[in-house]
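Researcher: Here's a chain I'd like modeled. Treat it as a single chain, no partners, no ligands.
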Amino acid sequence: MFAIQHTPTGRLLPAPRGRGGRGGTFVEFGDDGPPRLFEKRVSAEHALRWWLGGQCVVGQYQGWEGDVDEDWRIVPQKHRKGNEVAIVEVELVVKG
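Model: Modeled as a single isolated chain. Structure tokens:
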């Protein structure tokens, strides 16, 4: 499996909570919780690219004709630096 690591501290990016596991762009390395794990490296790469881009805020609204639409915007997070993160391979061990 794969995880996203903050190289200066060694911390792993935690899994998002709530909203059905969505909200991965809102977590930070200092947040509590289990690490977010990915089965494929490419999945971790995609998540990292979104996370580095900033917080993805999605608002829903209803148009005049009753249709529901979404407004997506990215709120940059200047403290997130690509040279301070890495995708690392992890081994999940079940003890028992």
